[in-house]
From TrEMBL, chains A, B:
Coiled-coil zones: none
Name of the protein in its database record: UDP-N-acetylglucosamine--dolichyl-phosphate N-acetylglucosaminephosphotransferase
Assigned protein family: Belongs to the glycosyltransferase 4 family.
Pathway this chain belongs to: Protein modification; protein glycosylation
Species for this entry: Thermothielavioides terrestris (strain ATCC 38088 / NRRL 8126) (Thielavia terrestris)
Upper classification of the organism: Eukaryota, Fungi, Dikarya, Ascomycota, Pezizomycotina
């Protein structure tokens, strides 16, 4: 009945003071931003700081409420199995959406003023008849507002789906396609605002295909595919403390870095607006995610729930579709794509799939080991599967244990976490999360390098080089 | 352990056939609508039929799932107290939002075609340079899309709030103002698109105030007030089977009738678009609500939950703000306003407020009687309160029971449902719901009559009369 400091639902004095100081600084920055010129990035950063403070405090305070409402889980990879709050990603999603919605009047403040009275826009010399009419509506960037609102609709839809999944355990086949519906507003806005469905053909293929290939409707199918894949892929790279949030933070940071590359080009890049838009959605996401990571990192004091995974995946979809860089997102999801492809033998039932495939906790050593699918002498894989499993074992892509007569005893489960443990041996939970996160970072940085440097080998131009 | 037919989670054969027939008819209408001309109302009606079918089936099927997830309640006003699913309004909200989101491409189909290729719009003669550019973006009604999306954002926000309330029982003071935040996207769009903050002054006051009074920012405070009041007021006129849904259906029907008055004017009314927009949100709401009413009417097989009440209230706010008739909504909420004002003595603590104020079920007669606040000889109301209570009692606005020495024994609780029982005597639950619904209808019709007929006594013009 003793409550350790780590599970107390109140903030310590130093935490309270730090959060208050950070919040005060952010409020000061916000107040200042209104005095001076347009500094959307600074405003967005301050907002993200506030979102961090709010999430941090709410995650702590709402723990008992969530447990009382039935959102609780037991950490299987610990000696002391106690119940901790589950589904705390819902708090992050709520804070994030609240921040983004409350922010609408600020984002569009100058536009509203310009569109409705002209008073705030000193660059525009007003003609008398305009002043008389009082308004010149065509100046308001309605398409920007549509983009912003469509992003919010998509994110709210996916947050509701995640919450429904946490509440009701929706069946896999029912929930798999719902992110595509959540993406409908995005795709409509993309169609109307941008509508580019052509992809640039690599130089080497241009003699055969021409410079551009128009995918037409297929391009929308591709974007819906990204919208389905991204949330689901974050959701299946899960199972150890901190991994869901850490991978999301890395991807968000890399997307933000990619945005930064466009903002720092030597000449004003035509895509500057798209990337500012993207940053204004990514920075608050980083704010709420870091607050969650603080509580979810080993040893976890809260679980994130499916809500967070879906939500994080959809944030990436939203910024990459509306920012017109969905192919860059695919590059950053390479570990997730690998995890999904690697999982297919179990997802598609070629190999039996237990309910949980998270790494096995060895209570004696306190380390994680690969979890396994057991095979009995009566129930052996069919010959082609057996051959493939042995091949994977020889390629060190699977741990295969055979008995003296060459029959399968057990094979490690098909997830990247188990594979990493096959390669690196038993690891403590936080060590495994750290290594996977480092791998995600390295792969992502390489992806961005490919995108911006090596791409010049196969494409004629990029944001850093003007066409010759 | 016997499961009566009314609580079976599957549809009967005749229900299945009826729903399938209705759904097939709606799909046929939708398919036809794409062949022919623009018939937004027909399309919306067909969509609403589909929403009805989906809600009806899902409410039935998901009952056990909701009970398993902890969404269950006991009906206090029945002889047999068994647990039935709670919070089924969440299903309606989800179906509604799903329908509205999936519908976006259809609503804007012709606009997208016109804006992106011109191919679908036979009225427009394309100039060569436009065809070359491929797109003429300014043609797309971005402001319409913004309105549509802002409505969805507001509704999703309120649905999430309702669900959070059903899950966590949020404290009154925490949740009271949240609808105002949910309305932010609406108010921004209102500001940008319409921005009228003047109200017409009654003829009799015009010599003193002029023809129009510009309320400026106060008008936004007023609209935020409506956004707070409407969801909360539906939520406090609750407690007996069917009453939450029945009042919402009546208000939605009256709003739709009001829209119809604008569509049937002898000349094309300038507000036609606003009212078509309003209908396209009201009709699907009627679809999902009628499916819920079927299950929630006496004897209720499901409860609706706070989610439904908040959601219904916000649908009215959305259509009335974006349709620019928020004052008409206030007229239709007169019974809710009365209930709120009448409740204030208990809401503000002048009279003790028990946890539940729903009418008391008399198990002997099977009828509902007014529930009461008991007073002990030690704990009597203070003199001014006692005087006011006695006055209310004399005006037949309260049932007051005194003992032989003039001390208070009990007073009926301050809700319109209890007051109605004071007036009309003990009633069966469905009879009470029916009478309150009839009263809501009559008051609402009178409100519309005032709005469209008597208004001419104090205002110079209306939708039925051109200014002379």
């Amino acid at each position: 009945m003793t409550s350790s400091s780590s599970s107390s639902p109140s903030l310590s004095r130093s935490e309270t003071l730090s959060l208050l100081a950070l919040a005060a600084a952010c409020v000061a920055i916000l107040a200042n931003a209104f005095q001076g010129d347009d500094k959307p990035l600074i405003v967005s950063l301050a907002l993200s700081g506030l979102a961090f403070c709010a999430s941090f405090a709410l995650i702590r305070w709402l723990g008992p409420t969530f447990i009382k409402a039935g959102f609780k889980g037991v950490d299987l990879s610990k000696h002391h199995r106690r119940e901790i709050p589950e589904c705390m990603g819902a708090v992050c999603a709520a804070v994030y959406l609240f921040a983004i919605i409350v922010f609408i009047p600020f984002v569009f403040y100058k536009d509203v003023v310009a569109a409705t009275s002209g008073g705030g826009n000193r660059d525009v010399v007003l003609q008398v008849e305009h002043v008389q009419q009082g308004r010149f509506l065509h100046r308001f960037p309605h398409s920007k507002l549509s983009s912003y609102l469509s992003a919010i609709v998509s994110l709210q839809t996916i947050a509701s789906l995640g919450l429904a999944d946490d509440l009701f355990d929706i069946r896999w086949r029912h929930k798999f396609f719902i992110p595509a519906f959540a993406a409908i507003p995005l795709l409509v806005v993309y169609r109307v605002d941008f509508g580019v469905t052509s992809i640039v053909v690599p130089l080497q293929l241009q003699p055969y295909l021409g410079q551009l290939v128009d995918l037409g409707a297929l391009y929308y199918v591709y974007m819906a595919g990204v919208a389905i894949f991204s949330p689901n892929s974050i959701n299946i790279l899960a199972g150890i403390n901190g991994i869901e949030v850490a991978q999301s933070v890395v991807i968000a940071l890399l997307l933000a870095l990619n945005d930064g590359l466009y903002l720092l080009t030597p000449y004003p890049h035509p895509a500057t607006d798209s990337h500012l838009f993207s940053l204004s959605f990514l920075l608050p996401f980083l704010g709420v995610s870091l607050a969650l990571l603080w509580h979810n990192w080993y040893p976890a004091r809260v679980f994130v729930g499916d809500t967070y995974c879906y939500f994080a995946g959809m944030v990436f979809v939203v910024v990459s579709i509306l920012g017109h860089f969905s192919k860059t997102l695919v590059l950053l999801l390479v570990p997730q794509i690998f995890n999904f492809v690697y999982s297919t033998p179990q997802l598609f039932g070629l190999v039996p799939c237990p309910r949980h495939r998270l790494p096995r906790f060895n209570a004696r050593t306190g380390l994680l080991e690969p979890s396994v699918t057991p095979w009995t002498p009566d129930r052996q894989p069919r010959p082609p599967i057996a051959w493939a499993l042995k091949l994977l074992g020889r390629l060190r892509l699977l741990r295969v244990t055979l008995d003296g007569e060459g029959r399968f005893v057990e094979t490690s489960n098909f997830t990247i976490l188990n594979l990493w443990l096959v390669w690196r041996g038993p690891l403590r939970e936080d060590r495994l999360a750290l290594e996977i996160t480092a791998m995600q970072t390295v792969v992502g940085l390489f992806g961005l390098f490919v995108r911006h440097r090596l791409a010049l080998l196969v494409f004629k131009e990029d944001n850093w080089s003007v066409p010759s």
